[in-house]
Amino acid sequence: MKLDAKIPEGPLAEKWTKHKFNLKLVNPANKRKYDIIVVGTGLAGASAAASLAELGYNVKAFTFHDSPRRAHSIAAQGGINAAKNYQNDGDSVYRLFYDTVKGGDYRAREGNVYRLAEVSVNIIDQCVAQGVPFAREYGGLLANRSFGGAQVSRTFYARGQTGQQLLLGAYSAMSRQVANGKIKLYTRTEMLDLVMVDGRARGIITRNLITGQIEKHSGHAVLLCTGGYGNVFYLSTNAMGCNVTAAWRAHKKGAFFGNPCFTQIHPTCIPVSGEYQSKLTLMSESLRNDGRVWVPKKAGDTRKPEDIPEAERDYFLERRYPSFGNLVPRDVASRNAKYVCDEGRGVGNTKMAVYLDFADAIKRDSEKVISAKYGNLFDMYEKITGENPYKTPMRIYPAVHYTMGGLWVDYNLMTTIPGCYALGEANFSDHGANRLGASALMQGLADGYFVIPYTIGDYLATLPAAKVDTTHAAFTEAEKAVIDSIKRLLSINGTKTVDQFHKELGKIMWDYCGMSRHAEGLKGAKAKIRALKEEFWQNVKVLGVNEELNQTLEKASRVADFIELGELMVEDALQRNESCGGHFREEFQTEDGEAKRDDANYAYVAAWEYKGYNQPEELHKEDLIFENVKLTQRSYK
Amino acid sequence: MKLTLKIWRQKHANDKGKLVDYNVDINPEMSFLEMLDDLNEKLAERGEEPIAFDHDCREGICGTCNLYINGRPHGPIRTTTCQLHMRHFHEGESIVIEPWRARSFPVVKDLIVDRSAFDRIVQAGGYISVNTGSAPDANEIPIPKQIADEAFNSAACIACGACVAACKNASAMLFVGAQISKFALVPQGKAEKKIRAEKMVAQMDAEGFGACTNTGACSAECPVEISMTNIARLNREYIGAKLTSDNV
Amino acid sequence: MSWITQTLTSTIGRKLVMALTGLFLVSFLFVHLSGNFLIFRADGGRAFNEYSQFMSSAGIVRVLEIIMVLGFAIHIYTSFVLTRRNQKARPQGYAFSQPSANSSWFSRNMGLSGSLVLIFLLLHLRTFWYTYKFGDIPTVTYEGTEYKDMAYLVKTVFQQEWWLSIFYVIIMVLLSFHLMHGFGSAFQTLGIRHKKYTPLIEKIGIAIAILVPAGFAAFPIYFLLTR
């Protein structure tokens, strides 16, 4: 199969406008004849569901949460970028486009990213009209702040809760359509399979998480807005429920998976404190503006940080990157923290942490100034760790935060399955190998509010309005497969709990396919995951029955998919013989230890095709063509 | 650290349910939910059914976790259940863990309740009617910083339901007050403010929540510190709407 | 349902009714209390008896009396409706609850303090109002007009039935609790809440909650002490 990204011809700035004109339209009176299934109600899902319902389509929206407002978009802290240039500091659509392509280490499509930058301005307008309480200046106009990877102030924010406020905006728009009867909302309902009729996505199979009922839902198109798969690492900053299941089941039905190995590791997280740890908490990157990162020079130094004299401390970021110092990008900061811990110089009980020290900043600016800047973060840190960061340095360690990879989609956000779309973090599209801060919210909302409402019409216009009944053989078959797989999970009755498998998988992924990877390790990881998969299906212990609320069963089916995904991620990391963005292969680095891209051979999207259980997946390459930006090596020395 | 947990177990909505004792020995550095994870792992190993409880982001923002711990929503300190750590308890303590109790929040299983009543209240009018694409420039209507900040304070509600759980009348007025306030305060929300107040209050009443007696328990237990001002504003908005709107 | 009944039977509408009648009843307490103080005038109870006569015969007072009785009736009826609704809102209670951690005793026990005040009210009406109207009490004559000697009745009741006096004092403590929460709460329900004025309203509420019941309690205490 030949991948066609369907990027419109013509100059970059005109692609989207031209494309919108060329897209086929569905007559307003006909829209009500089409049913659209939206899976997931985060930023992408809620905005898409609301916008499509406003256009007149019938939307069925699904979430495994008890309410659409619980989706993990709600936890995004920092902000949302938009090329408004309200600050008069030289921002433009082109600059946002350029920064995003560069920040993604030149592994994203120019066309997609330009469109993202273009619609970013509309997003802010839309959100403000919905009543989103963005931060404002005293004069009443919107405030901006600057964020990593950019030299202009273009980030709009609502304190440290921007994701929450944007999601509540989309949720309210969606709620309005629920009241209008244009959206039928299914809560505590999880998608477990995609139904294909005549090679097109025509419905989904779901499980009602309260009754266990397996249900069939038919529609003319299916939108997967199901977020990222960071929980494949077990510990991540993702919510406990985040999973790859919907995307993975679509993948198994023919949707290619793009760049699965591109994951983002965030450097400033509260470190793991013990085996029992369930989740990692992110603290804003802004802390690195004033905090100094260090470890003891000597390995195995167990003295308290206060007792270690200045001369015996290694401010390793400042030492290695004199010009950027503690403000190097996320991937560089993360990797260096890993190296010093690998050398045995980590701190804290687990030795898997580095210090982030504010003593100098407090001495320089006073405790009051520091508290005004970071008070809430310091409080959060103290709440979780019980330590006072004004008195003793914080301990931080990198954690998995975002997955740039996802279902491969074309310019219209359609996967390789006709009628099946992927939006937001669930797709691979706009961030390349590394996502810049404040860009995830922008992409989720761009896809949902301003891209899919146009592009879906182009597909539906060619599709007869006749509905496929859920009594169709394809539905019965998919339903049976889902029931069988649940039965299988419940019948194994082994000795190891689901969490134990998940933790083991997470450890393999973190050790070999995390911040730093090498061929040897990846090969070993592949075998380990294979073995884990075998063991899982023989020895997992899932208690209870299907016909009840059964959280263990839910988790088991998600972990089963994570294991398969883990295998693919390793495969992908192994084939990409270069270092770029979040993907760092130790064999491919410059003399001074920096990531070394190979643009001649690897400027492509790796799109993987499922070939059957335990069969190697087939790699398809979509070449990335850069007509507007010049590819350069990043340097932060 | 040894503790006795008295946890509400209820197989399904129609089961009678009861408190069951569990003795645990845990690491005091754990979070409250990690302690329950740990207990669940042990139960699973023993072949007993794990305790069902709601949780998701575990960073205090999604509002999913909701346990009534030792007689208070989210436990002894003002935070969400997921941000509560075991160092706030002491050796040998006995901890009672119950679900939120309210007619409008029926128990689904064990510690999980159904809070969809909140969604239905929002559906009744918790929005500004603006179709995608029809918005004017974001800076067209200035909003004084103070007003924007106040709206944010109301919008910070995470809909966990601690207010209902804490209230002796199981009243939802703090939640509804926050939803109404965040729109009533900003110019964009003014056009629909009357119909919004009327419809949301009608839905709140239809859901069967109790009436406010201004004890302030809701606000005192609210993990995101939604203030009682929101209830005063709700009253004002509702009474004003009823007196002056055209809706007979 | 017309919009008026719809409004008044909503939870907020009923709270509004509670607040308005409550504040109205507070105003009655003031009138009642200021009249009562006439008994302390050193004129052998003449002013007090004249006042009592006026209060039980003047036309305007009769109208106000009906409004007041209605005020009481509506306040009490609405409280019953709300209490029932509130109880139904939580059919199954908590096995263990610590309400004192988040709210004051006064605020949570308005029903209790209110009910006791109501019982008191009935007893109070029986003791004074009923006796005055229909009972057999001595009379005095001032400047050719005969007056029932209410001052004498009050004095003898409080002095002879000491347990009743003590009951009066106890109930005044409960009335104080009721006002302590009720006054400020009424303003909150009316939506009157402002950074500048709410602290003042709360202080006035506390002052009223202390001074008014203390004023009422002064009578039984005074007569007990002067027995």
UniProtKB/TrEMBL annotation, chain A:
Coiled coil: none annotated. Residues 502-636 form the Fumarate reductase/succinate dehydrogenase flavoprotein-like C-terminal domain. InterPro entries: FAD-dep_OxRdtase_2_FAD-bd (IPR003953), FAD/NAD-bd_sf (IPR036188), Fum_R/Succ_DH_flav-like_C_sf (IPR037099), Fum_Rdtase/Succ_DH_flav-like_C (IPR015939), SdhA/FrdA/AprA (IPR030664), Succ_DH/Fum_Rdt_flav_su (IPR011280), Succ_DH/fumarate_Rdtase_cat_sf (IPR027477). Its cofactor is FAD. Keywords: Flavoprotein, Oxidoreductase. Signal peptide: none annotated. Residues 35-441 form the FAD-dependent oxidoreductase 2 FAD-binding domain. This is Fumarate reductase/succinate dehydrogenase flavoprotein subunit.
UniProtKB/TrEMBL annotation, chain B:
Residues 148-178 form the 4Fe-4S ferredoxin-type domain. Keywords: 2Fe-2S, 3Fe-4S, 4Fe-4S, Iron, Iron-sulfur, Metal-binding, Oxidoreductase. Its EC number is 1.3.5.1. Binds 1 [4Fe-4S] cluster. The keyword Protein biosynthesis does not apply. SUPFAM superfamilies: 2Fe-2S ferredoxin-like, alpha-helical ferredoxin. It catalyses: a menaquinone + succinate = a menaquinol + fumarate. It is an enzyme of class 1 (oxidoreductase). Its cofactor is [4Fe-4S] cluster; [2Fe-2S] cluster; [3Fe-4S] cluster. The keyword Nucleus does not apply. It comes from the Bacteria. Residues 1-101 form the 2Fe-2S ferredoxin-type domain. InterPro entries: 2Fe-2S_ferredoxin-like_sf (IPR036010), 2Fe-2S_ferredoxin-type (IPR001041), 2Fe2S_fd_BS (IPR006058), 4Fe4S_Fe-S-bd (IPR017896), Beta-grasp_dom_sf (IPR012675), Helical_ferredxn (IPR009051), SDH/FRD_Iron-Sulfur (IPR050573), Succ_DH/fum_Rdtase_Fe-S (IPR004489). Belongs to the succinate dehydrogenase/fumarate reductase iron-sulfur protein family. NCBIfam families: dhsB, PRK07570.1. This is Fumarate reductase iron-sulfur subunit. The lineage of its organism: Bacteria, Pseudomonadati, Bacteroidota, Cytophagia, Cytophagales.
UniProtKB/TrEMBL annotation, chain C:
It comes from Rhodocytophaga aerolata. CDD domains: SQR_TypeB_2_TM (cd03498). SUPFAM superfamilies: Fumarate reductase respiratory complex transmembrane subunits. The keyword Membrane applies. This is Succinate dehydrogenase cytochrome b subunit. The keyword Glycoprotein does not apply. Keywords: Membrane, Transmembrane, Transmembrane helix. It comes from the Bacteria. The chain crosses the membrane at residues 16-40, 60-82, 112-132, 162-183, 204-225.
